[in-house]
């Protein structure tokens, strides 16, 4: 989480139209929960724009990029690769090992989430295939739980740089403060 070794998220596969919201949410979840970068397939430019816009307004650091070769990124990754899949080893059994590789050994992590069927090569190329439960659910949910386990909750405390607005937590209502501290409040 914005320390020496990077955590990047790769969205593998994107079906324009059908996957637009899900791909965007992979990026927003990666950003909000402590990853440094998200990489989308190059047909997901609309999702990239949304994530970049949120980062500009609500702060960073966070990078969003496109790639023409998602599997090339996996093959050429110099750190370790974690593929999130319902068929993988239980997250609670491998999280310590992954945290040690990242935190103590300084390995950059590439977290891979799929959309439609993930090619078997990815299972073979991954250092860990990890299940957040072995039940089918969602790439967004799997990513969120995995990042929270990886960072042991520290990502909830992160500060945001260069935001032009900030949400003030409230018991009731919505309050957003601009960077120059003009406050706007709204009751639901
Ligand atoms: C809707 S699923 C489709 C998976 C696809 N049927 C396949 O064969 O890989 C899309 C993505 O959600 C993630 N996912 C779904 N359930 C998961 C689980 N229990 N643990 C971790 N990731 C999961 C995986 O990254 C998966 O590629």
From TrEMBL:
Main location: cytoplasm
Any Pfam family the entry gives: Trm56
GO cellular component annotations of the record: cytoplasm
Matches recorded under CDD domains: aTrm56-like
Positions contributing to S-adenosyl-L-methionine binding: 84, 114-118
Enzyme class, broadest EC rank: transferase
Cellular compartment(s): Cytoplasm
Stored InterPro entries: Alpha/beta_knot_MTases, tRNA_m1G_MTases_N, tRNA_mtfrase_aTrm56
Reaction(s) catalysed by this chain's protein: cytidine(56) in tRNA + S-adenosyl-L-methionine = 2'-O-methylcytidine(56) in tRNA + S-adenosyl-L-homocysteine + H(+)
Keyword vocabulary terms for this entry: Cytoplasm, Methyltransferase, S-adenosyl-L-methionine, Transferase, tRNA processing
Classification via SUPFAM superfamilies: alpha/beta knot (SSF75217)
Annotated segments matching region Disordered: 169-188
EC number(s) given by UniProt: 2.1.1.206
Protein's UniProt keywords contain NADP: no
Membrane-crossing residue ranges in chain numbering: none
GO molecular function terms listed in the Swiss-Prot or TrEMBL record: tRNA (cytidine(56)-2'-O)-methyltransferase activity
One of the GO BP terms on file: tRNA nucleoside ribose methylation
Family: Belongs to the aTrm56 family.
HAMAP family: tRNA_methyltr_aTrm56
Functional summary from the UniProt entry: Specifically catalyzes the AdoMet-dependent 2'-O-ribose methylation of cytidine at position 56 in tRNAs.
Quaternary structure and interacting proteins, as annotated: Homodimer.
Listed PANTHER family: TRNA (CYTIDINE(56)-2'-O)-METHYLTRANSFERASE (PTHR42197:SF1)
Protein's recorded name: tRNA (cytidine(56)-2'-O)-methyltransferase
Native source organism of the sequence: Natrinema longum
């Amino acid at each position: 989480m914005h320390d020496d070794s990077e955590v990047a998220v790769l969205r593998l596969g994107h079906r324009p139209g059908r996957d637009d919201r899900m791909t965007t949410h992979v990026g927003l979840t990666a950003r909000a929960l402590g990853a440094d970068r998200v990489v989308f397939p190059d047909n997901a430019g609309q999702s990239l724009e949304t994530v970049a816009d949120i980062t500009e307004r609500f702060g960073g650091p966070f990078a969003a990029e496109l790639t023409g070769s998602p599997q090339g990124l996996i093959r050429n990754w110099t750190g370790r690769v974690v593929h999130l899949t319902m068929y993988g080893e239980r997250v609670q059994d491998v999280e310590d090992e992954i945290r040690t590789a990242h935190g103590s050994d300084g390995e950059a992590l590439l977290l891979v989430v799929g959309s439609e069927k993930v090619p078997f090569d990815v299972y073979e190329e991954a250092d860990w295939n990890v299940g957040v439960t072995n039940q089918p659910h969602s790439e967004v949910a799997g990513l969120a739980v995995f990042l929270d386990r990886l960072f042991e909750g520290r990502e909830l405390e992160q500060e945001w740089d260069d935001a032009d607005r900030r949400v003030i937590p409230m018991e009731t209502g919505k309050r957003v403060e601009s960077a120059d501290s003009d406050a706007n409040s709204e009751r639901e």
